[in-house]
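Field reference: sequence -> structure
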Amino acid sequence: MTMKDDVALVYQITSINRAWKRAREQWGEDSAIALMLRERKSSLQARLVRDSPDAVYLRSDTDNTDGEPLYSVRLKSQVQLPNGVTRSDAEHMPVRLAQELFSPAELAGIVK
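Structure field:
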């Protein structure tokens, strides 16, 4: 995957994350649209991690004290998105979801 592809994927992930949060607020977290957006975001995050192992890794989010344990999907180098925002991450992924999407061997190699 090229850096341009990574930037496009991070932009999609952050855009979907915003839409997911709005859908949860408007229709509830168990609404069909909220669930679909959450699953799409996780799918894109898994693709980013798998396709760009030299540029992306998972890190435990120790700042999160509310809710379930999370990984931060971290970028080794900051990227500037098409909207001008500079990002060093591609949002968060629940640990339980990462354990569903990645094998134990994959997780051992991508969690830093």
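Note: The CA atoms of residues 6 and 64 lie 26 Å apart.
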